[in-house]
Write a structure and sequence with these properties.
This protein has 381 residues and is mostly helical. The protein has one domain. Helix content is 73%, strand content 1%. It contains 19 helices and two strands. The protein has a two-stranded antiparallel sheet with strand order 1-2. The radius of gyration is 20 Å and the shape is globular.
Length: 381
């Protein structure tokens, strides 16, 4: 009877009601944007030219707008404690969101400026909440992070890094939205296990609003997340992780990092391989993990389907990899040693699979990373 009462309490809680409002409003607003694209398409459309673009028809790329608006709707139905935590997140996320939307509309906002905007969101979040990262569970580093100025700067860089990582993986229908929805749920489950029901409620609302967008973006790609959406979601993921660690000392920093292992590893490995090729780290290409999975496997297994359907299959397949990450994070969050093993194992698994795709045979991920000559990544083209 106690278990039944607990389950009923969860599903009839104000946070669940607010999440339902967030999902419904997000989905409805996304549909509205698609239906009215002939009116706003002159400034909102993402056209098909570009080295990293796989879509076959011009598509609105302002999906971040309904996500943020629906989060506001969910806020009005949330309990007071969730509202209090969500308010500074919404305010602080505005620099990242506004500069991202400006790029979606104008295509004239440089990468450096957008990165600075996401870092500004991290600084603003600290200013509003007095919260910043004071530990990463690495000896020596934690001592340095006890100095406020160092902690704030480190937090701003971390927030900017995660925000840009989400933007980088936003390559196929459903990829970023599946990954981020699962990540928010992963953080919610950890928060719930340690008794932080307020943070669990905030994470649940964020997941619901992104999930509403997912069903318009996937499988037919009627609406794209855009830079505004990806930067805001990335900021929100990073800030939820910061709050999880600062409010709950029993949670390992590596467990929080493991939840976002895919985008974090993707951006770090992208910097590495571009350095190896002596290419600009910000230069776009088609050698991202998701791009190779589509061409190496999805194109072969699902070649009978249209390019748009293959894009959607790729997005969900890779997005669902986050399930492994959140399961491991929820199992190891109380142990730094185990969560380090989980994070490192997942990261090396990424590199091993990437090496398999470009070399056409399995090899040690460490050997692939430490090889002195240039890895044959051009063979993937």
């Amino acid at each position: 009877m106690n278990i039944i009462q607990a389950v009923n309490g969860v599903f009839h809680s104000p946070a669940i009601t607010a999440a339902a409002w967030g999902f419904v409003s997000s989905f409805a607003l996304c549909v509205l944007l698609v239906l009215t694209k002939r009116w706003h398409g002159v400034w909102s459309m993402d056209f098909t030219d570009g080295v990293q673009k796989f879509h076959t028809a011009p598509t609105p790329r302002v999906g971040g707008i309904p996500i943020v608006l629906s989060l506001g709707v969910a806020w009005t139905h949330a309990p007071a404690n969730v509202q209090a935590m969500l308010t500074p997140l919404l305010i602080a996320g505005m620099p990242a969101f506004i500069f991202g939307v400006a790029e979606d509309i104008s295509n004239r906002v440089g990468v450096a400026l957008r990165l600075l905007a996401t870092m500004a969101s991290g600084m603003l979040a600290w200013w509003l909440t007095d919260q910043s990262l004071h530990r990463v569970d690495i000896w020596g580093v934690d001592w340095v992070l006890h100095f406020t100025i160092v902690s704030v700067i480190f937090t701003a860089f971390a927030v900017g890094g995660v925000a840009n990582a989400i933007n980088i993986i936003d390559g196929f229908n459903g990829l970023a939205s599946t990954m981020s929805t699962l990540a928010f749920l992963g953080y919610a489950m950890i928060a719930w296990q340690v008794g932080d029901t307020t943070l669990a409620g905030v994470s649940l609302l964020l997941a619901a609003c992104v999930w509403g967008f997912f069903w318009v973006n996937w499988p037919f790609g009627k609406l794209f997340l855009g830079d505004g959406g990806s930067y805001f979601i990335g900021f929100a993921l990073a800030w939820v992780a910061v709050l999880l660690l600062e409010r709950n000392p029993s949670v390992s920093a590596f467990a929080a990092l493991a939840v976002c292992v895919h985008p974090v590893t993707e951006v770090l490995f992208s910097i590495y391989r571009r350095k190896v090729k002596k290419a600009n780290p910000g230069h776009p290409d088609r050698l991202h993990f998701h791009s190779l999975v589509k061409r190496r496997y999805v194109a072969r297994w699902f070649g009978q389907y249209t390019a748009n359907i293959r894009n959607s299959i790729t997005g969900v397949l890779i997005g669902l990899l986050t399930l492994t990450a959140i399961v491991l994070a929820n199992l190891t969050y109380e142990s730094t040693a185990l969560s380090v093993l989980a994070f490192v194992g997942l990261g090396l698994g990424y590199v091993a699979f990437y090496a398999r795709m470009v070399r056409h045979s399995w090899c040690s991920p460490l050997a692939f990373l430490l090889v002195k000559r240039k890895p044959p990544i051009d063979s993937a083209l």
